[in-house]
């Protein structure tokens, strides 16, 4: 497989030999993605229900929301270290600068806005 990738690499080494790179098909990364998806489903169902029917937020829910936001923050960090596919989907790009540039152009700001504790900001003022 590495010989095949070498045909399309233009002399640049794109293999996963760099430190701190997480490959997309890594089993631990897949488990992490499933965990984040479960948290997203939970938040997308529970937050609207709590907003509609709960008169007051209990300390347990506030802690649960903070814990979930911390997982989403960790996911942002993990995204900066996860290899991405090139445009032709021939090989995985493992250059930290290219990964960061791609993530910053894409989902980064949506992910960042989604973890801001807006309720805490509004209630503090």
- Give me the strand/helix succession: HHHEEHHH
Question: Roughly what is the average pLDDT, rounded to an integer?
Answer: 85
* Low-pLDDT segments, ≥5 res: 3-16
> Which term fits the overall shape?
elongated
List the total number of helices.
6
- Secondary-structure class: mainly alpha
Strand content: under 5%
Quaternary organisation of the protein chains:
single chain
Number of strands: 2
In brief, what are we looking at here?
By secondary structure, the protein is mainly alpha-helical. The protein has six helices and two strands, in the order H-H-H-E-E-H-H-H. It has one domain.
Provide tags for this entry.
3% strand; 62% helix; 125 residues; disordered N terminus
Structure description:
With 125 residues, this protein is mainly α. The chain has one domain (23-124). The chain contains six helices and two strands; from the N terminus they run H-H-H-E-E-H-H-H. Strands 1-2 form a two-stranded antiparallel ribbon. Strand 1 (84-85) and strand 2 form a beta hairpin. The protein is elongated, with a radius of gyration of 19 Å.
């Amino acid at each position: 497989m590495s010989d095949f990738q070498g045909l399309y690499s233009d002399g640049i080494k794109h293999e996963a030999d760099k430190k701190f790179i997480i490959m997309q098909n890594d089993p631990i990364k897949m488990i992490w993605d499933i965990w984040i998806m479960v948290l997203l489903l939970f938040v997308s169902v529970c937050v609207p229900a709590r907003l509609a029917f709960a008169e007051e937020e209990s300390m347990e829910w506030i802690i649960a929301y903070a814990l979930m936001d911390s997982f989403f923050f960790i996911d942002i960090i993990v995204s900066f270290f996860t290899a991405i596919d090139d445009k032709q989907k021939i090989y995985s790009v493992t250059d930290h600068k290219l990964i960061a540039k791609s993530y910053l152009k894409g989902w980064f700001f949506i992910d960042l806005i989604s973890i801001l504790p807006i309720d805490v900001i509004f209630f503090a003022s």
